[in-house]
Amino acid sequence: MDQVAIEHPQVLVVTGMSGAGRSSAAKVLEDLGYTVIDNLPPRLLAEAAISHDIPERHEQLAVVIDSRGGLPIEALKSAIDELARGGVVTKVVFLDADDEVIVRRYEENKRPHPLGLDTISQSIEAERILLGELRESADTVIDTSNLNIHELRDRLTAEFSEEEVTRPMRVSIRSFGFKHGSPRDADIVLDVRFLPNPHWVPELQPLRGTDSEVSGYVLGDAAAKEFVERIDGLLEFLIPRYQAEGKSYLSIAIGCTGGHHRSVAIAEEMARRINQRGVPASVHHRDIDR
Question: Residue ranges per domain, the chain?
Fold first, then answer.
């Protein structure tokens, strides 16, 4: 597929759940050449951009905003609107993670949650309510539950590095099990639980969708063949249009009940087809070992 020019944000607002990796993201963005300001009150966002002469110097500024002080969403929206009127490209990236992952990170680091309620779980619940509207309005949501620092770096680099002025869309395909929860940051979620389940075939049950026996069983079904063809055609239509809008990273999640068989086989096949079309596609099986 054709490569397109990517309009990089001049001001990147990094926010999200405490414990989801804002500090790690800030370090990555510094390495990518962004000037990073931590814990900036939303009302000072436009002032910070102006003081750095962002429009004239074509510099890139990343501001990290957290929930301390209540994070007034209207103040942030007003600041972003003000920058837009001045011709500054601004994007909001929201970092998220599963509650149990955030709890574990706080327990491992032995640090208090910034909201400081009686328990970490209570603080997380309160913060989710506080940040709910901001998450919905964010340009990019990144779920760090299953990302290490190197994978987070790759994700941010794919979206926000200027090392390549033009680059192809990158596609990430994840299989998952609905019983373990849906991915928080997927752009497209596909449900393949309508397909015959190898779990109920004794000789296939202990195998996984990466095994040829299971893959052949799943992909040999008439409904699976039609499903794959239809989704393949949809992505052939969507990907260049996402690229034209400046999107450089597409996350597709494919789910079945447990994330062992059907979703894995379909994800592998979709990644194969997308790569054959010349679009870099990676595949990750979130729940295959659960």
Answer: 4-166, 170-285
Other C-beta atoms within 10 Å of 150: how many?
Answer: 9
Q: Collapsing DSSP states into helix, strand and coil, what is residue 248?
A: coil
CATH superfamily membership of 4-166: P-loop containing nucleotide triphosphate hydrolases (3.40.50.300)
Q: Do strands 4-5 and 166-167 pair parallel, antiparallel, or not at all (unpaired)?
A: antiparallel
**Strand pairing class (35-38; 61-64):** parallel
Please name which of 254, 253, 250, 255 lies closest in space to residue 279, comparing C-alpha atoms: 250
pTM, entire model: 0.64
Q: At CA 27, angle to CA 24 and CA 29, rounded to 5?
A: 110
Q: What angle separates helix 120-137 from helix 99-109, to the nearest 10 degrees?
A: 130
**pLDDT per position as a tens digit, 165-194:** 445 678 999 999 999 988 888 889 999 999
